[in-house]
Amino acid sequence: MGKVTGFLEIDRQEQRYEPASDRIRHFGEFTIPLTENEVKNQAARCMDCGIPYCHNENTGCPVNNQIPDWNDLVWNGDWQEAARNLHSTNNFPEFTGRICPAPCEEGCTLNLEDIPVAIKTVEQSIADRAIGSGWIKPQVPDTRTGKKVAIVGAGPAGLAAAQQLARVGHEVHVYEREPKPGGLLRYGIPDFKMEKHHIDFRQRQMETEGVIFHFGENIGVTRPLSELQDAHDAVLLCIGSEHPRHPGCEGTDLEGVHYAMPFLIQQNRRNGGEDISDQEQLLASGKHVVVIGGGDTASDCIGTSFRQGAVSVTQLDIRPQPPAKEDKLATWPNWAVKMRTSSSQAEGAVREFSAGTLEIIGDERGHVTGVKCARVSQSRKPIEGTDFILKADLVLMAIGFAHPIFEGVVEQSGAKLDKRGNVFADTFSYKTSVDGLYAAGDARRGQSLVVWAIREGRQAARAIDLDLMGQTALPR
Fold first, then answer.
1. Pick from 221, 153, 202, 260: which is nearest to 411 by CA?
2. How many CB atoms sit inside 10 A of residue 226's CB?
């Protein structure tokens, strides 16, 4: 695939970033795209490796993008066919090309030499060029099936399922709690990682394809789930996993201590021009910020805090500092544990590893003043004599999500839950224990990547179409 000797002749090249001193002054995307010729050269590096682990969901891409194929098409200048190929497996490659951590690159054969093909960069370039060139047209079905499907939640899983089902002729209604679609794509992921006009473009496309959106509908609150079940032939739950994990220490009720999502959501609403005047303003301006957690959400809190004008940001990660480089022969082609620095962390965050949170400290007014920490052992137990206190005016708790919110739609469904509290359904039928009720995405799988949500939405759509029609042409 690509140029036969490309991987020998051409060095790996990724998109560059605006300098940190410039990008923290705005909330827009800050990547500097490669030129067309540079992207073609990166695609040319894709080698004929025999077993391309990059597009296997276990070692690479969860949606099974046909990466060697569209790399070859880009190298040969057929961008339009590359876009068609890419969209055959991924409804929203402009999303994943921006925010996916690229497990495909971990599985790339060239990653054995730390120089994988810049797959994510090529994917984004194909998607952006396709949209900019007007190649992405609504796919309106020729005939209607007469079947109605309700989807609860307009996150990536719900959107992917809705688009697939509408394209085969079903009447699809998407019920979304928020005033706009996207779920965490819109309200959780900061604009500097993905601007929201990308979601708006897909909303317009899907509406033309026949998807009907109902905003401000918190199913289980604004209307009972049974109403949807009575009015539709199938109901798909794509409600995400929103119940946050608690850090398990005292002081979380102090003023100035917040979970990550309210902080991120409010800034995204602010950027989107939504009215937040009735909310407590959660801002890092002029403050010493401590972020508890070592994942992507914590990183988003760091970047948002710097853009709001934080004086300092310290990140607490209970995990030990990983090695700078993994043992390739022991880990490849799987995702490796190694030192990774996000663009937000590179903007000036102090990272504390093996740091357990003992207590959040406040003053007599009930406002946070610091975080008491200790180094922890491999079993994550505090090591005696290693206590230290970090000054904090704002503490953001970002240690992940346990399961979907039970109150409302989940309780009303009566569906069986798995041992982690997720809605139980298998990965072939996506059926819950309730007849006619399906579940996909984080609500079924637990918190995961956007690309996994897209995969599950597509597969759930196929399962629903098969159940309703007895046959299906939709891909798994």
1. 221
2. 12
What's the pLDDT at 1?
A: 61
Backbone dihedral angles phi then psi of residue 375, each to the nearest 5 degrees: -70, 150
Q: Can you spell out the DSSP letters for 29-92? A: --EEPPPHHHHHHHHHT----SS-GGG-TTTS-TT---HHHHHHHHHTT-HHHHHHHHHTT-S-
Tokens found for residue 423: 């809605």
DSSP E strands in 71-199: the ranges are: 148-152, 171-176
Q: Is residue 375 pLDDT above 80, yes or no?
A: yes
Whole-number Å distance between alpha carbons of 57 and 476: 12
pLDDT tens digits, 110-148:
999 999 999 999 999 999 999 999 999 999 999 999 999
292-to-318, 357, 373 alpha-carbon distances in Å: 9, 8, 11
Q: Put the strands of the sheet holding 355-362 in their side by side order.
A: 355-362, 368-375, 388-391
> Which has the minimum average pLDDT: 47-51, 77-81, 301-305, 372-376?
47-51
Q: CB-based contacts of 35: which residues, under 8 Å, 6+ apart?
A: none
